Amino acid sequence: MAAKQCHIMMFPWLAFGHMLPFLEFSKKLAGKGIRVSFVSTPKNIQRLPSIPPHLVHQIELVEIPLPSVEGLPENCEATVDVQLEQIQYLKKACDELHAPFEKLLHTDKPDLILAYTAATLGYLGPPAELKSCSRRTRHEHFAVPPDWFTFPSLVAATAILCTNSSSEICTVLTDLACQVDKGWLEFWKAVNLLQCEAVKSLKGEYLNLLEELYQRPVLPIGLLPPNLVENKTLNTVHSQWSTTFKWLDKQKLKSVVFVGFGSEYKMPIEEVHEMAIGLELSNLPFIWILRKPEGIDSLALLPPGFLTRISDRAMVNLGWAPQLEILAHPAIGGCLFHSGWGSIIESLGFGHPLILMPMVADQGLNAKLLMEKGMGYEVPRNEDGSFSRDMVSKSIRLVMGEQEGEPFRLKAAQMQTVFANHELHDNYINKFIQYLGNFKKAESDVHGRD
C-alpha cells in the first residue's frame, strides 16, 4: 500500500508549545498526501491557527472533551490557562482521556499514533532503569545528566526547576517514573518508533543514544521552521502593528533586542520590575513583548517613569504579538527570551544571537543544549533562581556588542544556514514518509501471511 494512503493520528500534550509543532508537522505531512487526525480538546482546537484551505481535506481536527477534575478551574484546557501549581490537575484530566481516546482508535484505526508520552519516557532512562529501584523519582535527580549518557553533556534541569516543587518538567518526569509499574512498561513495548523534532547536526549524539537504549528506530523530522509567507498574521501585521513596525524601520541594522518570555510563564510583578530596569541599564534599543500578570493594574505593571525614560529607544507591547514577523525585521539583532523550542527555531532561523532565561517546563533543558553547542549565553541567576537587573543588562551588552560575545554572534549566523534551510527539513519529512511506506508494507505482508 502506498505511503500517501497512510493515516496518522496526532495527540500532543495540552500545551501550545507542543500542539503548534504537532500541527505544523501535520500540515507538512498533509501537503505530501498523508491523512492526519489531530486530536485535542474543544477549546484548544478552537484556538489553533486555521488550516490552509488546500489542506483542509487532509487534516481532521478531532475534539475530545476534557473531563472535570478537582483542582482544575472550569474551561482550562491548556497550560496557558492555568497557574504553574495547577498543571498537575491538567495532567490528571489528560490522563483520564485514555478511555475516549482508545474508543477513537478503534473507530478510526490509524496506521500510526504520534503522542508526547513516549518521548518523555526517554529522559527517564532505558527499560532496565525504569524497572530499577534506583530509578530517578525525585526532582533533584534531574539536576545532573543521566548516568546512561555515553558522552559529556550539560543537558539537565536547572537548579531552580529541580528545587521548585511545582516545576512542570520535573513533576511530569517524576510522576512518570513512579507510574512505570502501572503499565508504562507495557506501553513502551507497543512503541514502534521515536519521532523527534531535530536534525542530526544539532542532536545527532542524542538521537543515536536513544536508538541504542530503546532498540527502536529514531526518526528526526527536521525543525519544522515556520514559513513567513504562509504565516496567517502576515496580511494583518502592518494594519494592527503599524506603529511598532514603523519604529523598527527607523532603527539601525541589527541594533534592537527582542525580549519575550512566551505564553506559558506569568512573570511576577517583582521580576517584571527587575527586568525593566535591567533592560533600561543596557542602554540598547529593545522591543519587549510583555504578558501582564493576573490581578495587576496596568498602571502598576512597570516601574514609575520607566516608559518615559525609554521612550526614545524602546517599545513595550502587552499581550500577543506577531513574533515571527518582528524577528524577521532587519533591525532585530538579538533575543532575550525563555528558551522555548519554537522561539529558538524562529530566532536562529533569522541568525539572531540568543540570551537565555529559561523559566518553566523544558526550557532549562533547551538552554543547556544551546550552551553545550555554543549557541546561546544564559543570564546568570542566584541560587534561588532569581535574577538581578545587573545580570540582565550585562548579559545583553555581552551578547549584543562586546568582544566576549562575538562567538555567540558568529555561531548564530552559522546556524541560520541550518535552521532556515527549508530544503534540508523537507528532506527529513520525505525520509519519514518513506519509512511509513516501508512500515505499512511490512505490516501488510505480515498480516497477509497470517
From TrEMBL:
Molecular-function GO terms, alphabetical: UDP-glucosyltransferase activity
Alphabetically ordered keywords of this record: Signal, Transferase
One Pfam family of this chain: UDPGT
Annotated family: Belongs to the UDP-glycosyltransferase family.
Protein name, entry field: Glycosyltransferase
Listed InterPro entries: UDP-glycosyltransf_plant (IPR050481), UDP_glucos_trans (IPR002213)
Signal peptide positions on this chain: 1-17
Source organism, top-level taxon: Eukaryota
Lineage of the species this protein comes from: Eukaryota, Viridiplantae, Streptophyta, Embryophyta, Tracheophyta
UniProt source species: Nyssa sinensis
Coiled-coil residue windows: none
